[in-house]
Design a protein that fits this description.
The complex is a heterodimer of chains A (260) and B (1078). With 260 residues, chain A is α+β, with helices and mostly antiparallel strands. Chain A has a single domain (2-15, 54-118, 131-253), classed as Porin chaperone SurA, peptide-binding domain (Triger factor/SurA peptide-binding fold, Orthogonal Bundle). Helix content of chain A is 58%, strand content 10%. Chain A has 9 helices and 4 strands, in the order αβαββαααααααβ. In chain A, strands 1-4-2-3 form a 4-stranded mixed beta sheet. In chain A, helix 4 packs across helix 7 (163-184). Chain A is globular. By secondary structure, chain B is an alpha+beta fold. Chain B folds into 8 domains: 48-127, Ubiquitin-like (UB roll); 130-206, Ubiquitin-like (UB roll) (Roll), CATH 3.10.20; 212-300, membrane protein fhac (Ubiquitin-like (UB roll), Roll), CATH 3.10.20.310; 304-376, Ubiquitin-like (UB roll); 381-471, Ubiquitin-like (UB roll) (Roll), CATH 3.10.20; 477-553, membrane protein fhac (Ubiquitin-like (UB roll), Roll); 559-632, Ubiquitin-like (UB roll) (Roll); 640-1074, membrane protein fhac: a member of the omp85/tpsb transporter family (Porin, Beta Barrel). In chain B, the strands form 9 sheets. A 16-stranded antiparallel beta barrel of chain B has the order 22-23-24-25-26-27-28-29-30-31-32-33-34-35-36-39. Chain B has a 3-stranded mixed beta sheet with strand order 1-3-2, covered by helices on one side. In chain B, helix 5 packs across helix 6. The chains are: A alpha+beta (260), B alpha+beta (1078). At the A-B interface, helix 1, strand 1, helix 2, strand 2 and strand 3 of A face helix 1, helix 2, helix 4, strand 2 and strand 3 of B. Strand 2 of chain A pairs antiparallel with strand 2 (102-111) of chain B.
Chain lengths: 260, 1078
């Protein structure tokens, strides 16, 4: 049963990946343009011993998103998926690079909304991070190498991730979760009919494919209910982000065009 | 709590939002993944993370550089000589970008030639440019030029981009189209100031031909109006005057054409009771060959709507004011209910406090709707008393100002009352007390409604007595007042700003003012993003103290980097610099920017002064201030037309036979006048100016040339003026005089309220012999030109408030002394002192103003009297009019020349007389000749304006009393106060001529030589009423006065051939002019 539930989550994940193209960065007031002419020329004309280390990738309501942000995001993503902060996911994959940038833009929009709220319940402090819970989510930590603070530090250092960087990443993650929970969860109610429909039309057919016997509805109703709630939340979040983008000033740096 | 695993789903799902094409403005970018991927920034080969720990040898900036004192560089987290910290570098990138000076930013690392050493960090960026000067050329209409400047939406100092430029062009095009220019040509010219990162834009505009209104068509099922009428009511035709000169005239299209058409037709519909009529403009098209704009309107008159009011007589005009369906052009429930509310309010204002109004709408769906308001007035009431009791902290006057329940008075006989107003008053009283620390205050209203008298009979108007019983409770005081977030070196300064002190009675107003004062202080110190928050803690109930904390978040202090002045062609930079309050290196003070703008405008040399901060939203601690000036035209021509209407206008018509006294007292008449002033300002690039002032009218002709230098010797408080000119004036019935005068004066402004004027005057005064209406024996003598020269000094003290044009309090005092002496070449020696003092008092709730003015002047002459008998041995001069004792008793024989004497009477003096008509008179002709002393006292009660039909509160009334006179000798001024009538009045009626037997007609010569006896040493009193109509340039004034004790005087020869008679001053006078009398 758990496999099928995970399969349900995974299918959603896969769906999201499929649904991720086409990338449209020209949303609302999103203006797509320039690489800094001078910056790019500067890069191109850099002496051989000189390397570009970081640059502006986008501006979200005045906040700068850097290339290093995208790089960090890719590292964390691969850390969670494969357990290894393998940079190969980012290199050579321009589509993924662009998708991550859009994700960072959305996250920044949410964080700016969080900052507008003065409710202390949304503030997440470093002390709130449960290291044990965090490491349990990373496959590479399954061998117990991350169980001690020293082991954890070494684990991060080996993957060129600074402790502060990870802390900030996780704090933002929790703040976004809290915010989404508070903003959207309250208005959603479980619909027993929807659970039954999902069980009948989605859950059972998947089990039939595997020729396994499906557990009864009563056993999985709760988890199906959670999945449906989270689907609703996701839908509300998507609509809200769409509105937020139209109201925001977003600039994405691209080669070849003048920045507005 | 959502499981973290699902978060990935959410975040990835959220990514799908980014993939959805938005309905926003089109992007030039292809939305497919493939093409975006190709044009996206490539990933970097090396990341900042990989360089963590590398030694940073040095830090450099390229593209955007920073001045030496700029703390941005020193505040960067990553320092040279330290290991590279990726988070520090990332933070520094954001900090640098936030300064607002970067269009984009990147950081690179340059390795040292020898391996093993560190690297140099290079921050590179494209500098951002900001909007500089925006100029519009090719448009002659100044108003249109201003509109076009606004339409560009290019604010000086704000960030500039190519989008801004295209938006500006679009804005210009749209603005020109709206103003009827459908085929303009706009060319842009862009120049860059590379040093200061400014972009200056010039838009060369050829407006082309303004469109005319062409074909107008009206669609709709039931427009109820013909096209011809539509054009007429919608002002789509030329005016009658234009059509008179050109029958084929077509109206020009401007920005008001459509709105005027829609509102005009709507008004037509409302007049015809079509209150639900609708008009719109679905289509308009420009016909290029004919340069006409064709309009297609859609109109529907809707049903006829009648509004009736029953139960109480309400006029039609009042109904239209109260029921908003007329203004709104719609009939819906909200508007009908609002009409009910307004009608009930109207009834309550008339004393029907229990009035009820019901509204009913009938005929829906038909062509005729009826809105019926049924009013039940109820009993009429009058509020006879409104009392307040129990108040100790605030006096009754303070609380009464808040109350909306009013006792009946002359202006509102029934007073004002309703249950809502009582509740509002209770809330206002309690808010006032709470704001001053009385948290437990209770205001309990008690209303007594009496319908019958104590005797039992029913009262015509029921009486309401309202009492507010206040229980104040205990007042809170300020406890500890703490400052949080204030730097140690600023604590003392900030504390000194605070008015609130520990132990003082609590006051929310004082606290708010303190917060504003602290905030203003930080703004003045350049902390443009400062914030000040107040927190209060009133939990210390035992001691009734409220602890207050002011939390200051100062932010970054911004200083002025450069002050960039542009637009100066002729004015000297030193003149401009002298007005600057903002300087390089000083904190960026918004108040200083405003003061600079004000100072530059006050120079009167510029049409426009724009002062703005470059990069206003950036966090850069060093910013430029741009000062953009537009010089005014240096030639200025002003022309005007005016008139004075009054009684007592000099109107001497030689040969006219009259038996009345109108000749001496002038006539009621109108004196028109035209004026022309030509000025050349900005002489020699300074504030100096040269002005030719000329006036031509029935009573005066003046031409004066003056050179004005506002900053004499470079001193801002000194103004020098050199003037000379000619004037020919008849402001008295007795004579007209011409003067050729030169004057040099220095005006010193010691304080805002005090002014000193030092001057030297030199003039040649002559009287037109043919206009001189005095005893013939002295005409030659007194018509001789006289040289008058000497120094003078004037002191002015002005505290009138709110303005000199309409003062309600304060004072105006002036004293002037002039000495004419032969030492300065004057042909006559005298000293003239003239002082005037006015004060204003406002009292009463309705703001009555009591104004008073007292003028005292006297002259003292010395040396031989040129009018003495045979003085100077002049040939042909017979001075029998001044022979013997007549030299002392005949007012005409005063040694001071006629134009230099002191006079009284007129619109701004004693209103019981015509202009300069008061005081001593020639004892042969009866014409006024002035004197050596003058006292005029005026009292005026200026009533608050009543609310009248049509004019509203624009008209007010005054009651005035003027008394005083002009006196032959200064010594007669004060002792004459007790005389209500002329002393020895009977001598003024004595018309006997020596050598002429009683009952016989004297000869012309006998009449000419006769000199009467009459004493004018008394105080004349006049009372009157005036009307004032407020205008932006001061009140229009009409005064009507009645002289209680006009003078009498003997007239032997008034040049009309009449027999001798006793002349009498006019009782009635009127004056019409602009401005208050004092």
């Amino acid at each position: 049963m758990n496999n099928f539930l995970n399969f349900g989550h995974l299918s959603l994940l896969l769906w999201s990946f499929v649904a991720c193209c086409p990338c449209a960065s020209g949303q609302g007031q999103t203006e797509v343009s320039q690489v800094g002419n001078l910056a790019l020329r500067a890069q191109m004309s850099l002496p051989a011993a000189s390397q570009s280390l970081d640059r502006a990738a986008a501006i979200v309501n005045g906040y700068l998103i850097l290339e290093s942000d995208i790089d960090r995001e890719l590292r964390f993503e691969s850390l969670e998926l494969s357990g290894d902060a393998d940079h190969s996911l980012s290199t050579g994959s321009v589509e993924l690079h662009s998708e991550v940038l859009q994700r960072l833009i959305d996250r920044q929009l949410i964080l700016q909304q969080v900052a507008l709220q003065t409710n202390t319940g949304d503030t997440v402090h470093a002390a709130d991070i449960d290291l044990f819970r965090v490491t349990s989510l990373i496959p590479a930590c399954a061998q117990g190498v991350c169980n001690t603070p020293e082991g954890w530090d070494q684990f991060l250092a080996a993957r060129h991730i600074t402790k502060e960087s990870f802390q900030q990443y996780w704090q933002q993650r929790l703040m976004v979760l809290n915010f989404v929970e508070q903003r959207f969860r309250g208005g959603i109610r479980e619909d027993p009919n929807a659970v039954a429909i999902y069980y009948r039309e989605t859950f059972l057919p998947k089990f039939k494919l595997t020729h396994a016997s499906a557990p009864p509805l009563s056993a999985v109703a709760s988890q199906i209910g959670d999945i449906l709630i989270e689907q609703d939340i996701s839908s509300l979040l998507s609509d809200w982000l769409k509105t937020l983008r139209t109201q925001s000033t977003i600039v994405v740096f691209q080669a070849g065009k003048e920045q507005p | 709590m959502i499981a973290p695993a699902i978060l990935v789903v959410l975040i990835v799902a959220a990514r799908s939002v980014a993939q959805t094409p938005a309905p926003a403005k089109p992007s030039t970018q292809d939305k497919s993944t493939g093409s975006e991927a190709q044009s996206a920034l490539p990933a970097l080969a090396t990341t900042i993370w990989s360089k963590a720990g590398t030694h940073v040898e040095a830090i450099r900036f390229e593209g955007v550089t920073f001045a030496a004192p700029d703390p941005v560089v020193s505040d960067l987290k990553q320092k040279a000589g330290q290991p590279l910290d990726p988070e520090a570098v990332r933070s520094d990138l954001r900090t640098l970008f936030a300064t607002g000076r970067y269009l984009d930013i990147s950081v690179s690392g340059e390795s040292a030639p020898d391996a093993g050493s560190g690297l140099t960090l290079i921050y590179t960026g494209t500098p951002r440019y900001f909007v500089g000067r925006v100029t519009i050329t090719g448009v002659s209409d100044d108003r249109l030029t201003s509109l076009l400047e606004v339409a560009t939406k290019l604010e000086p100092g704000t960030p500039f981009s190519e989008t801004s430029l295209s938006d500006a062009m679009t804005g210009l095009q749209e603005a020109l189209n709206r103003n009827g220019y459908l085929q303009p040509a706009v060319q842009q010219e862009v120049s860059h100031d590379e040093v200061n990162n400014l972009v200056n834009l010039t838009f060369h505009i050829t407006v082309g031909i303004q469109a005319r209104v062409g074909q107008v068509s009206v669609e709709g099922s039931d427009p109820g109006i013909t096209v011809a009428d539509f054009r007429k009511k919608g002002s789509l035709n030329c005016s009658r005057l234009e059509t008179l000169f050109r029958h084929t005239c077509r109206a020009k299209v401007n920005r008001n054409t459509v709105s005027n058409a829609l509102s005009g037709v709507r008004t037509y519909y409302v007049k015809n009771h079509r209150l639900e009529g609708t008009i719109s403009l679905p289509n308009s098209a420009y016909n290029e060959p004919s340069k006409e704009m064709n309009y297609t309107f859609s109109a529907s008159q809707g049903p006829e709507v009648n509004v009736v009011v029953r139960g109480f007589p309400v006029s039609t005009s009042r109904t239209k004011l109260l029921v908003p369906v007329f203004q709104e052009g719609a009939v819906d429930n909200d508007l009908l209910n609002e009409g009910s509310f307004n009608l009930r309010d109207y009834m309550q204002q008339r004393g029907y406090f229990d009035a009820a109004v019901k509204v009913q709408l009938t005929g829906q769906g038909t062509k005729k709707l009826t809105v019926a308001y049924d009013i039940t007035p109820g009993a009429k009431h009058k509020v006879t008393s409104v009392q307040i009791r129990g108040n100790h902290y605030f006096d009754n006057d303070t609380i009464e100002e808040l109350l909306r329940v009013k006792k009946g008075d002359h202006y509102q006989p029934s007073g004002q009352y309703s249950a809502t107003l009582v509740r509002s008053d209770v809330a206002s009283i309690e808010s006032l007390y709470r704001a001053n620390g009385f948290e437990d205050v209770v205001a309990a209203p008690n209303v007594v409604d009496t319908d019958s008298a104590p005797t039992g009979h029913r009262l015509k108007k029921a009486q309401l007595k309202v009492l507010y019983q206040i229980t104040e409770g205990t007042q809170q005081h300020f406890g500890a007042i703490t400052l949080v977030g204030v730097a140690p070196d600023q604590i003392e300064t900030v504390r000194s700003i605070l008015n609130s002190k520990t132990g003082q009675p609590y006051s929310l107003l004082a606290l708010s003012n303190d917060r504003d004062a602290v905030f203003s202080y930080y703004l003045s110190q350049g902390y443009e993003h400062a914030s000040v928050d107040l927190t209060q803690d009133a939990t210390n109930n035992a001691s009734h103290e409220t602890d207050v904390a002011l939390r200051v978040t100062a932010g970054t202090q911004v200083r002025v980097h450069k002050v960039l002045v542009s637009g100066v062609d002729h004015i000297r930079p030193s003149v401009i610099n002298s007005q600057m309050v903002v300087h390089e290196g000083t904190p960026l003070d918004q108040a200083a920017l405003l003061q600079t703008q004000r100072n530059l405008y006050n120079l009167a040399e510029f049409n426009e002064v724009n002062v703005a901060v470059q990069n206003p939203d950036g966090t850069d601690p060093y910013k430029n201030v741009v000062v953009q000036l537009t010089e005014a035209k240096r030639w200025d021509v002003t022309y005007g037309f005016g008139l004075e209407a009054q009684s007592g206008t000099p109107a001497v018509i030689p040969g006219e036979t009259r038996g009345s006294t109108a000749a001496q007292n002038g006539k009621a008449g109108v004196s028109p006048r035209v004026s022309l002033d030509v000025s050349r300002t900005g002489l020699r690039g300074t504030q100096d100016s040269l002005t030719l002032h000329s006036t031509y009218g029935l009573l005066e002709e003046i031409a004066t040339l003056s050179y004005n230098s506002p900053r004499l010797f470079g001193k801002s408080h000194l103004t020098g003026t050199l003037s000379g000119g000619y004037s020919n004036v008849q402001d008295i019935a007795t004579f007209s005089s011409s003067t050729l005068q030169g004057d040099f004066r220095v005006i010193q402004k010691s304080r805002r309220t005090d002014t000193l004027i030092y001057d030297f005057q030199y003039r040649r005064v002559s009287i037109d012999k043919n206009s001189l209406e005095i005893t013939p024996n002295l005409i030659n003598q007194l018509s001789e030109p006289v040289i008058v020269g000497g120094p003078g000094i004037t002191y002015l003290h002005d505290t009138r408030d709110p303005s000199p044009l309409n003062a309600g309090k304060g004072q105006f005092f002036s004293i002037q002394d002039f000495v004419a002496t032969s030492k300065f070449g004057s042909g006559t020696n005298f000293n003239k002192l003239d002082a005037s003092e006015s004060s204003y008092y406002t009292f009463g709730k309705r703001k009555y103003v009591f104004a008073r003015n007292l003028r005292i002047g006297f002259e003292n002459s010395w040396g031989p009297n040129p009018n003495a008998s045979n003085a100077g041995g002049q040939i042909g001069v017979s001075s029998t009019a001044c022979a013997g004792s007549l030299l002392i008793t005949n007012p005409t024989c005063n040694a001071v020349p006629l134009p230099e004497r002191l006079y009284a009477g007129g619109a701004t003096s004693h209103r019981g007389f015509g202009i300069n008509d008061a005081g001593p008179r020639d004892l042969t002709t009866g014409y006024p000749v002035g004197g050596s002393g003058v006292v005029v006292n005026s009292f005026e009660l200026r009533l608050p304006p009543p609310v009248l039909p049509i004019v509203g509160d624009s008209i007010s009334f005054v009651l005035f009393h003027d008394m005083g006179n002009s006196f032959q000798y200064a010594g007669d001024m004060f002792k004459s106060f007790v005389h209500f009538r002329q002393p020895n009045r009977q001598t003024c009626e004595n018309l006997s001529i020596p050598g002429v037997a009683p009952g016989t007609t004297p000869t012309a010569t006998q009449q000419e030589n006769a000199v009467g006896t009459c004493n004018f040493n008394y105080y004349s009193h006049a009372a009157g009423v005036g009307i004032r109509y407020g205008t932006p340039v001061g009140p229009l004034r009409a005064d009507f006065s009645y002289n209680l004790n006009p003078p009498i005087y003997p007239v032997f020869d008034d040049y009309t051939g009449a027999a001798p008679y006793v002349g009498r001053g006019s009782r009635f006078n009127f004056f019409f002019s602009i401005g208050q009398s004092f």
